[in-house]
Amino acid sequence: MDEHRARSQTDVVIDGVRDMILDGSITAGSRLPVEKDLCEQLGVSRGSLREGVRALVRLGVLETRQGDGTYVTDLDAATLFGPLSFLADLQTPEASVHLLTVRRILEPEAAALAATNIDDDALAAARAVLDRGDALLAEGDIDLEATIDVDAAFHAVVARASGNPAIEALVQALIGRTARARLWRAIHEAGAVERTQREHRAILAALEDGDASKARIRMAVHVLGVEEYTASQFVSAAAED
């Protein structure tokens, strides 16, 4: 069977553009050939080409500029991993445990890298985030949503300080979805918010000391606590059913 018949025409466009990037025909920031030429090159109709381009735009590979054509994006990690956050958002609550496991694998290494790479500006940013958390805890009626924002911001600073754009992008994509698990824990487990803040401070201390091993361990313990609590809730719910 002809390869183009075995695949949808949209897939032909997606694969064709990918191959053009890989072989250097077009590069990051390049403008795609005009529609007529690209249709002929890929052997597809204009309708199929437009569908494929729309799909690649959603994937962060291409971008359309009003009145100026379609271009390859910078192809940076943040852009290409961006759709992962959409996938993560569609996971069931039970699947948040699996996402937390992924974070437990990624974030200790991010923290270890950050301990050796972090600069004064990033340390100042991390301190400012945690100072905001302290201020929230000092309030009589703690704003739980705001504490989750503090949590996400702190983890984002650490991931960025790792100096690894791929790790940063993956962590950023997963933070939003797993934040719901943290919120659930904050609501239902006494002292969870205060414990989270203490754990953040311990991670920050390791970063300030430039101690990669300690930063790795502190972050692993921190993320594991949420993972284990979240898993236990679904086990309890299943037992009750």
Please characterize this protein's 3D structure.
The structure is a single chain. The protein is mainly α and 241 residues long. The protein contains eleven helices and two strands. The chain has helices at 3-6, 9-22, 35-42, 46-58, 77-89, 96-117, 120-138, 144-161, 165-188, 192-209, 212-240, and strands at residues 62-65, 69-72. Strands 1-2 form a two-stranded antiparallel ribbon. Helix 8 (144-161) runs antiparallel to helix 9 (165-188). The longest helix has 29 residues, at 212-240. It is elongated and about 65 Å long.
Q: If you average the pLDDT, what whole number results? A: 86
How much β-strand is present in the residues? under 5%
Total DSSP E strands: 2
- Unreliable runs: 1-5
Order of helices and strands: HHHHEEHHHHHHH
* Annotation field: number of helices: 11
- Looking at the structure, what is the overall shape? elongated
Q: Structural class from helices and strands?
A: mainly alpha
For the biggest sheet, the summary is: 2 strands, antiparallel
Separation of termini?
51 Å
Q: In which range does the helix fraction lie? A: over 70%
Radius of gyration: 22 Å
What would the keywords be for this entry?
241 residues, mainly alpha, two-stranded antiparallel sheet, 11 helices, 2 strands, 76% helix, disordered N terminus
